Amino acid sequence: DSGVTQTPKHLITATGQRVTLRCSPRSGDLSVYWYQQSLDQGLQFLIQYYNGEERAKGNILERFSAQQFPDLHSELNLSSLELGDSALYFCASSGAPSSYNEQFFGPGTRLTVL
Amino acid sequence: GENVEQHPSTLSVQEGDSAVIKCTYSDSASNYFPWYKQELGKGPQLIIDIRSNVGEKKDQRIAVTLNKTAKHFSLHITETQPEDSAVYFCAADLWRTDKLIFGTGTRLQVFP
User: Fold this and answer.
1) Do B38 and A95 touch, CB atoms closer than 8 A?
2) Chain B contacts of A102, Cβ < 8 Å?
3) Which of the four pLDDT bands, split at 50, 70 and 90, describes residue A42?
4) Which of A93, B44, B81, B92 has the smallest CB count inside 10 Å?
5) Does the distance separating the beta carbons of A103 and B34 come in below 8 Å?
6) Cβ-nearest to A43 among B89, B95, B98
């Protein structure tokens, strides 16, 4: 158990809808990262927050947005969903804004868009 | 952009044999190289990492080697067991950022 929690575990929705994925980092970790993993694909970095502020952006679509709240939990919002958005979404957390810090991954949310 | 290449994409070994997975990175300023194991239906789990000031690190049956000159690093698993079957990802940090660039993964199957 990494200490990172994600809800929900599974999500099934229809095209055009909007969903929110939630992540709670390990106790004391200030950074949260979001990744997308499509079937048999690698981990694509989406976005990172550090202590409530956006710190880095990756290949995140304009239809997607995220935020980190004062209690450090983070939410990833996906809107106008398309079939191709079906994937596993992981969040990871780390302790400080340094590239030397280990990232600990949550169990993921499996999103299915029908 | 910066990238990490990982080979092979699939690897099948007999229980008890060794397995080696290799990665090459492009950012010469990278200093941190973690390896993750992802079991079916689970999130990636950090199993070992190495920083640029050392050339090798071991933890029981797993070891990682780093060649900064050639910009490649490898994961070695000895005495493989069926529970080692999983997808393994290498990664390298992007200098002056908190980002990790991941390889495309290696699906390891260990047959009893």
Assistant:
1) no
2) 34, 46, 49
3) confident
4) B81
5) yes
6) B89
